[in-house]
Amino acid sequence: MRIKSLIAIALVLGAPFVPTAPAAADIKVLCASGMREIVSELQTRLGQVAGQPMSVSFGEAGDLQKRIQGGEIADVAILPRIVLDQVAADGNVVAGTIIDISQSSIGIGVRKDRPIPDISSAEKFKQALSAAKVIVATDPASGGVAGVHVADVFRRLGIAEQLAPKLKLTRGQRNALFVANGEADIAVQLSNEIRIVPGIEFIPFPPEFERTFVFSAALATRTKEANAAKAILQFLASAETTAVVEAKGMDRAAVR
Q1: Which of 3, 13, 193, 217 has a 20 to 30 Å separation from 202 between CA atoms?
Q2: Which of 8-12, 167-171, 233-237, 238-242 has the least mean pLDDT?
Q3: Residues 99-111: what's their mean pLDDT?
Q4: Burial of 105 by CB count in 10 Å (0-12 exposed, 13-18 middle, 19+ buried)?
């Protein structure tokens, strides 16, 4: 009815009527906070590769997993591999499309202009944590892989209850910023999230608590833009993204 009206107006005005093609929909990407810097840097290029605008929603892995399980429509999911495998098992991403992008280890961040604690053993790590007045960590309830792992480490050290009053729990934050601003003594997070903050020294966990997390991407089952989404995955898997991955403090994921 609307097109007929436009044609009628055009005929009255003496101008030819040319229907306008509908604008391409945005490619929607759900991306874990640990990949924020990489995906933000690549966003324009990814939109070019897809041939369509791209919108990105960042969040902690567990929160994004719940959104996907709840039926939220997206085209690409970028999550820690251990979470993405669960999402695939639920049928919410296409398992055969999963590609590994990058990886990062976990540790603590302290100010470079302060004494650097020795946390090379479990006992020394325990002492450093106990001496801190405020520790910033990702809320394990968010399902963020770093937060879940850190909560388990505190439990294994036997000091989870002792540390509870001094913990500042976050979601989607760069925890080292609180240390840089003097609001906390220690930040606990992935190495790339700590190293991105100026003036902060990254110290890896003791060997018995070390953990490396791989971040991966996959085609969402409910995608409305499969071809464009596949182009994004292909680009993320290419060597062209390696320089950005490394510049943002991560390593390229090992080939499985």
Answers
A1: 217
A2: 8-12
A3: 97
A4: middle
Structure tokens given for 72: 């939220």
- Structure tokens belonging to residue 135: 């520790």
Rounded to two decimals, the pTM is 0.86
Q: How many CB atoms lie within 10 A of CB 235?
A: 16
Structure tokens at 230: 């596949």
> How many CA atoms are closer than 13 Å to the CA of 194, on its beta-carbon side?
25
pLDDT at residue 61 above 70? yes
108 strand-pairing partners:
188, 203
**Closest C-alpha to 184, from 94, 109, 83:** 109
**Measured between alpha carbons, how far is 137 from 175 in angstroms, rounded to an integer?**
7
* DSSP letter for each residue of the chain: -HHHHHHHHHHHHT----PPPPPPPPEEEEEEGGGHHHHHHHHHHHHHHHTS-EEEEEE-HHHHHHHHHTT---SEEEEEHHHHHHHHHTTSB-GGG-EEEEEEEEEEEEETTSPPP--SSHHHHHHHHHH-S-EEEE-GGGT-HHHHHHHHHHHHHT-HHHHGGGEEEESS--THHHHHTTS-SEEEEEHHHHHTSTTEEEEEPPGGG--EEEEEEEEBTT-S-HHHHHHHHHHHTSGGGHHHHHHTT-EEPPP-
Tokens representing residue 39 in the block: 């995906």
Give the pair of three-digit tokens for residue 116: 């650097």
Residue 23 or 88, more confident: 88
